[in-house]
Each structure stands twice: as C-alpha cells, then as structure tokens.
C-alpha cells in the first residue's frame, strides 16, 4: 500500500466526521464549550440611559458660570429618580443609575460645589457627557457571540449580561483510549528487564479531553489475540464516538491490532501516511465509531493525534481548521526526505517577535525533546533545508 499524502488523509477523515449537533447547557456549565448557534441579544444594554460616573444629572443648557442649580433628589443603581429634572434643577446620581427624565448630561462630583440644596459647577458639559446611552453596549437583535467560538471568560460574561440562562453548544464526542503491547507497564510499576513505561495515554488524554464529553482510558491490552479481541469487543459495546488505539499499527508479527479490528467489522479507510514521525497510522470506522490506530512510539502517537485527530474533533464541534502560524526560524533546518516532517520546535519570544527554534532530535521515541516542544514545524517533502530567518509554517501544540 502506497503512502498517503497528509492532506488526503485529513480529507478522508473529515468526510467521516458527522455534522455538529447542538445541545442546550446552563451558562455555568458552558465554559470551554463551542457555541453552536449565535447568541443574540434579547434586550438593550444598558436598558436605559445611565450615568457613567458619580456626580450630578443636569440639563446641559442650564449650566452657566456662577449660577447654582437646585438639588431635587437622588438616582442610584436599582433606585432611579422618579421625577423629572426641570429648568434650574439637578439630581445627585451614581454610576450605573438611570438618567432622570429631562437631564441630558452628568457632571462628575469633583467639579461640583454643594451648599445646602444648591449646587454650582466648574465645567460646562455638552449634552451626552458621561452618559451611557440606552443600547450603547448592545441592542436587541444584535449578535453578541458568533457560532463556532469557544466560550471563555469574556464571552460568558457577555452572555450573562445578555440575561442568557443557557447556551446552545456543540455536542462533544465520547472518546475511548486503549494502549497495546506486552512490554508496557503503568507509571509507578517496578519494571522488568524487557519492560517500558506506558506513556501514550497519559499524553493523549489531556491533549484530547477538552474536545470530549467523556474520555475513558481502557488501560493496556497485551499482544494476545483473545485478550485484545475481548477488550475491543467490550469497548465497541459501549459505542464510543471515537476509539484511539496506540501500538500494534506497524507490520511486525506482534502488531495485531489492525488484524483484530478488521475481524471485528472495522472498515479501514487508509493505513500508512507519507510523514514522519507517524507513518503507520490507521483510520477506519465501525458503525458510528471513528477508529484511529496510532503508532506506539510516543512522539509518533502525539504528533499523529495533533495532525489528524485534533482536526477531526474540531470539525465535530463545528470549528474551522486549526490555525497554521507563519514564523521566522531562530535556527536552520536540515534537508528533508520524501516524507513530510513535523519537526519539534520551541517558540521563542525575541525582541523582534516570536520565532521557531528547531529541535534537532528526530527519534520517534524521544519523549524529553517532545516535552520541550511548543510547535511542530511543517517541513515539506524534499525541502532542501532553510536558514535562520526563513519563514516556515508551524502548528501550535497546545492550541485548542
């Protein structure tokens, strides 16, 4: 089977991803969710002309140097002045309080001198001074948050101001993880002479959890056909939206994951991508379940998850493709092979702006270099290598 170009693999995956579906959730539970439909204002904000500061509500035309106005009442937030400001009158007003009928400006208290019920002012305002006009923040029918936005603190504050008790967000997929391999043991285990620590699921889970309704780690399955088949049958019985296996995706005698998946009814869309690290990537479907078979090498597993699974999950939530940054290199890159290279790199903040510093390590099992990486430089096939300062494309590893 020939190696599939990266773009063709991504396109094949996205064709299998279902269209986003909306669900209503309480505002307090919407943080981190992706808005499914625009949030539209149902009222004006502020709902009345309001004072922008503590001071005095006046009719601007009444302010004449040396002439005093009569203080006739107070307007404060939650308890506005019920009367009308007439000629020669003023009302004490506080920030956020309704502007009384008849008034058209507010003079800050520092520019006022009070003598009993008479107030003199040291400035002459224009109409509208220090007044937040009705609907100045947003007006009825205005789209406040567009669909496809991930809801963070700022958007949730606006939704609350718009009196929205709940928001319609994209339904998230249920994800299942399964590591495979006789050599794997969980962190904290006393290792035998032929064993290594299983790390893939501990990286994949936090990488993908922000997109998931639930993410279930099904632990480690050994390279035993009966055990692996039983574990996969149990996982499929729970009908996850996405199944991700790691290991057993290559061509060795013990790499049986693909074989068992096919026996269990998985339709394989492709296997082997023209990239490094991460060539032996499998993708297929079983009913509604998207099935990703990632390589066992830790860097390969993380890179293929970033390059292929994250775009699928973004598409599931109704998001656009992940942004690709264009950055100058802080160091040279070597010549590339016929396979696209997703090169580990650090993001440096320099006096001239952000730059990408390539990490020279290319071993797909070298986890400590991955720990230093902020970016994946996308190095094209047969790239001759680039010098410092050249502009390259890069993916941000921790971007949503």
Radius of gyration: 31 Å
Task: State the CATH superfamily name of the largest domain.
Answer: MoaB/Mog-like domain
| CATH class designation of the largest domain | Alpha Beta
Task: Report the structural category.
Answer: alpha+beta
* Range of strand content: 25-35%
CATH topology-level name of the largest domain: Molybdenum Cofactor Biosythetic Enzyme, Chain A
Summarize the structure.
With 400 residues, the chain is α+β, with helices and mostly antiparallel strands.
Give keywords.
Molybdopterin biosynthesis moeA protein, domain 3; 400 residues; single chain; Molybdenum Cofactor Biosythetic Enzyme, Chain A; 18% helix; 30% strand; 26 strands
Q: Care to describe what's here?
A:
It is a single chain. With 400 residues, this protein is of the alpha+beta class. It has 4 domains: 6-20 and 172-316, Molybdenum Cofactor Biosythetic Enzyme, Chain A (3-Layer(aba) Sandwich), CATH 3.40.980; 29-45 and 145-170, no CATH class; 50-132, Molybdopterin biosynthesis moeA protein, domain 3, CATH 2.170.190.11; 325-396, Beta Barrel (Beta-clip), CATH 2.40.340.10. The protein is 18% helix and 30% strand. It has helices at residues 6-16, 153-161, 200-208, 225-237, 257-263, 298-316, 367-372, and strands at residues 22-26, 39-40, 50-51, 55-58, 69-75, 89-93, 105-108, 112-115, 118-121, 131-132, 143-145, 166-170, 174-180, 184-185, 196-197, 214-221, 242-246, 267-271, 275-276, 282-286, 289-294, 325-328, 340-350, 353-358, 375-379, 391-396. Strands 7-4-6-5-9-8 form a 6-stranded mixed β-sheet, with no helix packed on it. Strands 16-13-17-21-20-18 form a 6-stranded mixed β-sheet, sandwiched between helices. Strands 19, 22, 23, 24, 25 and 26 form a 6-stranded mixed β-sheet that branches. A hairpin with a 2-residue loop joins β20 and β21. The longest helix is centred in the last third of the chain and has 19 residues, at 298-316. The mean pLDDT is 93.
């Amino acid at each position: 089977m020939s190696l599939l170009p990266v773009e063709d693999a991504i396109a094949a995956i996205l064709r299998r991803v279902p269209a986003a579906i909306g669900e209503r959730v309480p505002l307090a539970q919407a943080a981190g969710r992706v808005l499914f439909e625009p949030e539209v204002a149902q009222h004006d904000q502020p709902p009345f002309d309001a004072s922008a500061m503590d001071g005095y509500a006046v009719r601007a035309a009444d302010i004449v140097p040396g002439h005093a106005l009569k203080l006739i009442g107070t307007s404060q937030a939650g308890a506005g002045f019920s009367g009308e400001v007439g000629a020669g009158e003023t009302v004490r007003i506080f920030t956020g309080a309704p502007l009384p009928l008849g008034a058209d400006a507010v003079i800050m208290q520092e520019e006022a001198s009070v003598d009993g019920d008479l107030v003199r002012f040291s400035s002459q305002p224009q109409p509208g001074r220090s007044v937040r006009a009705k609907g100045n923040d947003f007006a009825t029918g205005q789209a406040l948050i567009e669909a496809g936005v991930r809801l963070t603190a700022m958007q949730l504050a606006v939704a609350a101001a718009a009196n929205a008790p709940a928001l319609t967000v994209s339904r998230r997929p249920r994800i299942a993880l399964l590591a495979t391999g006789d050599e794997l043991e969980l962190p904290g285990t006393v290792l035998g002479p032929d064993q290594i620590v299983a790390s893939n699921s501990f990286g994949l889970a936090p990488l993908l959890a922000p997109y998931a309704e639930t993410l279930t780690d099904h632990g480690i399955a050994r390279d035993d056909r009966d055990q692996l088949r039983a574990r996969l049958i149990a996982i499929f019985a729970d009908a996850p939206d996405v199944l991700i296996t790691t290991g057993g995706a290559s061509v060795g005698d013990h790499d049986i994951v693909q074989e068992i998946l096919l026996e269990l009814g998985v339709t394989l869309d492709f296997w082997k991508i023209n990239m490094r690290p991460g060539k032996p990537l499998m993708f297929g479907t079983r009913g509604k379940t998207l099935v990703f078979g990632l390589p066992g090498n830790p860097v390969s597993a993380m890179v293929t998850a970033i390059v292929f699974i994250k775009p699928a999950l973004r598409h599931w939530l109704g998001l656009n493709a992940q942004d690709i940054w264009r950055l100058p290199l802080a160091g040279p890159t070597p010549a590339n092979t016929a396979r696209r290279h997703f090169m580990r790199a650090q993001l440096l903040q320099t006096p001239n702006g952000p730059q990408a510093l390539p990490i020279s390590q290319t071993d797909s099992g070298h986890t400590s270099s991955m720990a230093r990486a902020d970016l994946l430089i996308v190095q094209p096939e047969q790239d001759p290598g680039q010098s410092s300062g050249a502009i390259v494309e890069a993916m941000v590893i921790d971007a949503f």
